[in-house]
Amino acid sequence: MTATATSARSDLSELGRSETALRTFLHGLPGVDQVGAEQRAAQLGTRSIKTTAKAQAIDLAIRMVDLTTLEGADTPGKVRALAAKALRPDPADPSCPHVGAVCVYPSMVPHVAEVLRGSGVHLASVATAFPSGQAPLEVKLADTRAAVEAGADEIDMVINRGAFLAGRYKEVYDEIVATKEACGDAHLKVILETGELATYDNVRRASWLAMLAGGDFVKTSTGKVPVAATPPVTLVMLEAVRDFRAATGRQVGVKPAGGIRTSKDAIKYLVMVNETVGPDWLDPDWFRFGASTLLNDLLMQRTKLKTGVYSGPDYFTLD
Amino acid sequence: MFEYAPAPESRSVVDIKPSYGLFIDGEFVDPTDGGTFKSVNPASEEVLAEVAEGGAGDVDRAVRAARAAYEKVWGPMPGRDRAKYLFRIARIIQERSRELAVLESLDNGKPIKESRDVDVPLVAAHFFYYAGWADKLPYAGFGPDPKPLGVAAQVIPWNFPLLMLAWKIAPALAAGNTVVLKPAETTPLTALLFAEICQQADLPAGVVNIVTGAGDTGRALVEHPGVDKVAFTGSTEVGKAIARAVAGTRKKVTLELGGKAANIVFDDAPVDQAVEGIVNGIFFNQGHVCCAGSRLLIQESVADRVLESLKRRMAQLRVGDPLDKNTDIGAINSAAQLARIKELSDAGSAEGAERWSPPCELPDRGFWFAPTIFTGVTQAHRIAREEIFGPVLSVLTFRTPAEAVEKANNTPYGLSAGIWTDKGSRILWMADRLRAGVVWANTFNKFDPTSPFGGYKESGYGREGGRHGLEGYLNV
């Protein structure tokens, strides 16, 4: 590490102290050309991943799934079943890897924790008044602490989009810092809700803001607004984590969530990771898919590759 | 590591004949006084087919056939009927697009993803676009009843064999001319497949004639007294010879020649997209592009950062089998072109520029050149002045917008230029001052049949594409 790199690194940690410094920094990031970013994402989607590469990608994608249910109708029974599936996604094939994590509401955490204990599958909980984030800070922090105490080792928080869009970056920053503190040892994923940020410039700025404030992951969406993860949004976020590591030495993960339903889509994302940030991120510790229906499609494709024939949906468990 | 398994496109979709004759007056005929030559796959040096070499007698036969078709059938035919044929050709091209793409990649060496996603779709789009003009010529802005010229002699290069054919043939036929086209000697096969498509479309005999051969065949065609129009795309050197040959004749000429385009990156550019544009500008089609962004001008204050991103991105480029769907950079078209690229690159090193290529394994057989950039290049270096026509980028820097314009224009060429900045007003300011036929802003190498394309200075004259592209084929 050179002397200039060290000083640049310490400078970044000072940014959060002032609204002006944060604004100057975030608005000084290079812009994103919408047409170009969308074109690049589409290009990466034309890679042809076949045979051995496809098998490898499918197993990796399964290990990266954050198997999610975030419904008002969730019950202990429902989330226990989901957790069981997370452990053994394909009961017919013991060689099938388990998923990355189960993601539920805080009240469901204890029920999932019983099932997952000691399994290596992480337990993620949304918190901070998910999905809108429209609650007093104290409530959000209490929400976070409760989830961690109940056994969650990953917290998916939402940023305050209202404050971000109004340009009150320090407020957003401080909330992330406070939530990170409330997480203790739990990993913090910061949901940007990119569908509400609207522009790629905003996505890049929000990614940097989340990383500067200490987020361990940046995540696209709650899945509760019409526009969720898209390839170009994920591309912009991957570029941000790549540049952030170059500037600070700290690696941050990326989680596209919502709208990824097919193996084909998942593989396109893996290609994007591979060619944008490289193999360092091709690991469940650094890249996750927030999804529910994706898993069964991955399992169907996996079985197809192994047996040469497609099985119907009834050969795979519902949850 | 995530290794992509080989994903080759099947070559069985195309049926290559062992030998091809000349396509004259609606049928394939043997050359009367010429010999034959071989077309090879530049990725493997395997001979693909033996092709007839048209001599002066064959050229004469083709021009007569084109003249007869012009006078008896195509010239008098109402525009709406000509349009039907052009629409039919366009549809057949779409239907047979996979076949055309595979053949183009085999014969030219370009990656299948480019022939499949760029070349062939643009070819069909050109025919669709000009088919639409065929019955609307009075509204093209060239008077109430513009007339065709007659017989067009068309000579095209090897970098986009089928696309250049479309750029030439579609407007000529739409305007009511008949054509004799000579494809490049290293890439004649898709033109011959196009001849089969003309038969399939029941195009009247003699409207399209294809005479294969090398420089002598082209010269005989251009100098033939029976042609009314000469259209050429290729090197500036040959373009000048053509201009001399037709000087003083009644022949109308359009020339699409070389280029040494500046791709200009300002300090406020969207860096990641600019890097994509730089890569697309110079490594698209192995850099065998007359409008390639072969000179990168970066504002000095961001030069290191942009170059670092560029090198990281170049390390992702996949060089290899053109038929593999994941290949980004295919084979150099011919041994001769490879030698030229090597010679100029060596000159770059010898003149003191710093050479860099990502680590990449090149196949043993065939013609290959790793993507290469030269930094520390000055305007005085040969690699900053001469067209390399390969995957070689010369990087220069500038301090102010005025200096960028000065450097960009300081070339005998003027085909294209690129500007990368977030500032709209600067784009307009620059575009006004750049002496280039096409200026791309925050993109590069974008083509569309509705958009005119052509050069300033030694990059040629006349425009192809769009309404403007009709002018070269009308008596206006």
UniProtKB/TrEMBL annotation, chain A:
Pfam families: DeoC
Catalytic reaction list: 2-deoxy-D-ribose 5-phosphate = D-glyceraldehyde 3-phosphate + acetaldehyde
GO molecular function, one term: deoxyribose-phosphate aldolase activity
Pathway: Carbohydrate degradation; 2-deoxy-D-ribose 1-phosphate degradation; D-glyceraldehyde 3-phosphate and acetaldehyde from 2-deoxy-alpha-D-ribose 1-phosphate: step 2/2
UniProtKB keywords: Lyase, Schiff base
EC annotation from Swiss-Prot or TrEMBL: 4.1.2.4
Family designation: Belongs to the DeoC/FbaB aldolase family. DeoC type 2 subfamily.
UniProt-recorded name of the protein: Deoxyribose-phosphate aldolase
Gene name of the encoded protein: deoC
From TrEMBL, chain B:
Keyword Oxidoreductase found: yes
Segments forming domain Aldehyde dehydrogenase: 29-476
Keywords of the record: Oxidoreductase
Entry annotation: catalytic residues: E256
Coiled-coil region list: none
InterPro entries xrefs: Ald_DH/histidinol_DH, Ald_DH_C, Ald_DH_CS_GLU, Ald_DH_N, Aldehyde_DH_dom
Sequence similarity: Belongs to the aldehyde dehydrogenase family.
Name used for this protein in its record: Aldehyde dehydrogenase family protein
Lineage: Bacteria, Bacillati, Actinomycetota, Actinomycetes, Micromonosporales
